[in-house]
Amino acid sequence: EPNWEKLEPTALPEGAAPVSVIPAPLDVQVDGRRDTTAPFVLAAGATPGAQKAFSVVSALAGRLFPDEEALFGHDAGHLVTTMADPDLGDGAYTITFNADDIALSAGDESGFRHGLITLGQMLRGARLRADEFTLPASGAISDRPRFGWRGAHLDVARQFYPMQDLNDFLDCLAWNKLNHFHIHLNDDEAWRLEIPGWPALTERTAFRGGNEILPPLLGTPAERSGGFYTGDDMRALVAHGAGLGIEIIPEIDIPGHCYCVLRALPQLCDPGENRIYYRSVQYFPNNALNPAVDATWTFLGDVFDTLVDIFPARCIHAGADEVAEGAWLESPLARALGEKLFGKVETFSLQSYFLKRVQEMLRERGRDIAVWEEGALGGGLDVDGALLVAWKESKSGRALAEQGYQVVLAPAEHYYLDIARSTEWWEPGASWAGTVTLRDAYDYEPGGDWPDALKDQLAGVQTCLWSENLATPGLFAHLVYPRISAMAETAWSASERKDFDRFRAIQDLMPVSHRTVS
Ligand code: TNX
């Protein structure tokens, strides 16, 4: 059976520490070997953060590797004593391997969680590939994250992912020490979050087959398929993420990418607008919410009330990508608004007006705005608190930082997981950004050419998985793994610790999550 997600392991390069940990820890100085039959047990009197982390990580390992011997236990095993060390910053930890115990220090719960994941990965590697990896007898590991934003994005609009799939995906993110999950909740094809008071949205757009707005998608059944999330579904996801240290960033993609919204809620359209006068990149006609229609703002008020009620994240992502040049130019209401505000009618100044108003609405609700990089067009946003996700190419982030924005780098040619993994004739995936080999994903160095004065504006990195081409459930795992772990190593590990050959030798030990249904 070929293993399409993972690559066959290669030999650990000479001189690499014999520990199976991804992302690579900052400093590893270890010696000797301990027995690998016993699991880790927590010493009595552990700090409260450590106790919580122990129960989270042992449950996580149990879910990820249900068919294997437990890595964490409760009775006899390798004793882990814990110590609070306030000098260790956010997420950092140290592990010392002593004759009688393993001492784990951290400054907070996330540090304990990271340290325990590292131990779990070491024990698992030492059991499964005993001739290469060890659970050491002595020595120490000290480690801390490189970036605060270590993210993964998933498009649940073009395909529906049941809650089980989302939860499994979060588990895999946590094992990679990733801490942000950006969930793209709507697009031209569907709207996936129930908004109280607007039932037509999900009733008319969230299912394919028997749907009068969109035809069945290639590869999906002709009968009704798909779905949407209730507020309680998303609250449960937030809680699952919170236990694992993963913040959920909800994205409502506006004003563009709203074809199905405007079809389901025709009261949001300007009645004087031509029926089809522009098409978006993905060829959807008239798909931008109109800033000059009052109902747009009533609707968005309810959407943001719903989002802030469910998601505690500091940032709410408001999309802003790919508004088609030409949008609003034949809407009499938008023309009048453009004339009044700017003395001209132009798509991107109207877009900037739209997004600043959204930013204001979010501030009134105590939140900051995040957007894709096009949010900077036409005058952009107030930079205060605004986070931009740069996706077009690896060099686009720097100019955004120079304008004063906080930036997350997600360049398509390195981190878009819907792009094919290689040029092999059979390789599935999109091709508009070339191919993204494991090496392309691994070698990307964020902020390499940024002046030091801008470095604080680099929040971190993330992968993006767009779902247009993911109608077949098997594609999900094939596209996500192992490239997501390559990004994780850049997100977490110091750049001088990166070593592709070492990573390549270990990646098959990382967990994979699969889609349960199409
Ligand atoms: C661009 S990246 C898009 C998505 C597509 C993706 C396909 C971005 C913000 N917008 O709408 O799904 O390319 O790779």
Tell me about this structure.
With 518 residues, the protein is of the alpha/beta class. It folds into 2 domains: 27-143, 2-Layer Sandwich (Chitobiase, domain 2); 149-407, TIM Barrel, CATH 3.20.20.80. It is 31% helix and 16% strand. The chain has 15 helices and 16 strands. Strands 7-8-11-12-13-14-15-16 form an 8-stranded parallel β-barrel, surrounded by 4 helices. Strands 1-6-4-5-3-2 form a 6-stranded mixed beta sheet, covered by helices on one side. Helix 1 packs across helix 3 (163-175) and helix 3 packs parallel to helix 5 (231-243). It is elongated. The two termini are 22 Å apart. Bound molecules: ligand TNX. Residues 321-322, 372, 391, 416, 418, 430, 466, 468 line the site of ligand TNX. The site of ligand TNX has 9 residues, from loops. Keywords: Glycosidase, Hydrolase. It catalyses: Hydrolysis of terminal non-reducing N-acetyl-D-hexosamine residues in N-acetyl-beta-D-hexosaminides. This is beta-N-acetylhexosaminidase.
Helix content: 25-40%
Biggest sheet details: 8 strands, parallel, barrel
CATH topology grouping of the largest domain: TIM Barrel
Ligands, deduplicated: ligand TNX
**Range of strand content:** 15-25%
- Any idea how many domains? 2
Strand order of the largest sheet: 7-8-11-12-13-14-15-16
Blueprint (SSEs and pairs):
Layout: E1 27-31, E2 40-42, H1 48-64, E3 78-84, E4 93-97, E5 102-106, H2 109-128, E6 138-143, E7 149-155, H3 163-175, E8 180-184, H4 199-205, E9 207-208, E10 225-226, H5 231-243, E11 247-254, H6 259-264, H7 294-310, E12 315-319, H8 332-342, H9 347-364, E13 368-372, E14 387-390, H10 396-402, E15 406-409, H11 412-415, H12 438-443, E16 458-465, H13 474-480, H14 483-492, H15 500-506
Parallel strand pairs: 2-3, 3-5, 7-8, 7-16, 8-11, 11-12, 12-13, 13-14, 14-15, 15-16
Antiparallel strand pairs: 1-6, 4-5, 4-6, 9-10
Helix pairs in contact: 1-2, 1-3, 3-5
This protein binds ligand TNX.
The site of ligand TNX has 9 residues, from loops.
